[in-house]
Structures are given as C-alpha cells and as structure tokens.
Design goal:
The chain is built from 6 helices and 9 strands, in the order αβββααβαβαβββαβ. The protein is of the alpha+beta class. It is globular and about 45 Å long. The chain starts with 5 loop residues before the first helix and ends in a 10-residue tail after the last strand.
Length: 211
C-alpha cells in the first residue's frame, strides 16, 4: 500500500470543489474592486486607494500549499512578479490564513518567507482575520485578481490553465495573469477575464464559518 504524505493529501483534497459553510462575498468582474486596508510584512499600512491609477495584481498564497510551492519552487511566480513590477504593476501577495492554521503569517514569518522564496511582490498583506479574502471571495492559493487603472476588476481566477502540483505542468501553460496584464497595457479588453481558480482552500478561521 502506498502511503501518501500529508502534503500530497492536502493537494489532492484541494482540487475538490469548494463548498463553504457560508457563502463568501465576491468581487465582480467589471465592478469596482472591494476597498481594503491592511498591514504588510513590515508593519506598513497599505490600502487599495494608495494605488489609484495603477494596475494591481492580488495573489492569494500559503507557504504550506503545494500548488503555491509549484509556482515558487520553480521560480515561476517570482519571475511573473519581477516583470510585472518592472512594468509598473503593483503586486500584492495576500495571506488570509487564520492564526493556528496552515500558512498563517506573522510579520516575522512573512519577512522570512519573502527572503526564502525571493519574492518580488510590492508587499505581502497580512489578512489573518480574512476580511480581504472574504471581500474578494478568494477560495484558493493561489487565487488571482487583476485590477485595472480605473479600479475595476479586470481578471479573476486561476493563475494559469494547469491545475496540477507537478512543476513540469508549467511547460506550455497559458498564464491568464500575464495575458490579462498584456491586454490592459495595450489598452485592450481582457480576452479571458474569468477562469476557474485552483489550489488549496484558503485557511480562514473557524469563527468566520468558512472552510
């Protein structure tokens, strides 16, 4: 009998449909992105309004999720972040894991994780109470949102079309975030504005009533 590792069990469970005990609120395509304010890994207050007029990417993450591990372990996520920030995009990595749950970030843990993976994100937002995650309806790590220069949601969904843990799956993958940013930069409507998110369930606190 093959014994599955705890990490692989989490990965297998993550691809099942998400059925929250209570409905999450959700950002709506083409509508103003939900406003938020949160503290980053360095204790600095960050608000969406700080980035008015800029393209913004929101990336939900968990240091314990093998799907995030695929993108960070391969260097794929860091390369995307680096190019986006170079192009003037604001990239905000969001951690909505609650205290005591997998992937929870304190400021110190978030800083150490940033150094470890070599993140190029503009900031890591600490959302342990799940307010930002619930406002956007973030279900997975990674779950991606792109906000256009008018402050509206222009893309929401998965990072790409390969919902697998194996890094080899990145070969030939269609990266929806890269394509959305290219469309917006060129002044075009986003050709594929919605896709199915995949990954591990966001580890919201039990007090919220969410999985």
């Amino acid at each position: 009998m093959i014994t599955l590792s705890r990490r692989l069990v989490l990965a297998l469970g993550a691809v099942a449909p998400w059925v929250p005990r209570l409905a999450l609120a959700a950002a709506s395509l083409g509508e103003p992105a939900p406003a938020f304010q949160a503290t980053d890994e360095n204790g600095r207050s960050r608000a969406l309004s700080d980035f008015a007029g800029k393209l913004v990417v929101l990336e939900w993450t968990s240091s314990d999720c093998p799907y995030c591990g695929k993108h960070y372990g391969s260097g794929n996520m860091q390369a995307l972040q680096k190019q986006a920030v170079k192009d003037g995009v604001v990239w905000l990595t969001v951690s909505s894991s609650a205290p005591g749950r997998e992937g929870y970030f304190t400021p110190a843990i978030a800083r150490a994780w940033r150094r470890k993976v070599g993140s190029h994100a503009t900031a890591i937002l600490l959302d342990g109470d799940g307010k930002i995650g619930r406002a956007y309806g973030a279900r997975a790590t990674p779950h991606m949102f792109v906000i256009d220069r008018t402050g509206r949601v222009a893309y929401m969904g998965g990072i790409d079309d390969r919902p697998y843990v194996d890094p080899e799956s990145l070969k030939g993958a269609k990266n929806y975030v890269t394509l959305a940013l290219a469309d917006l930069k060129a002044g075009r409507p986003v050709a594929e504005p919605v896709s199915a998110p995949y990954g591990c369930s966001v580890r919201y606190g039990s007090a919220t009533g969410f999985q």
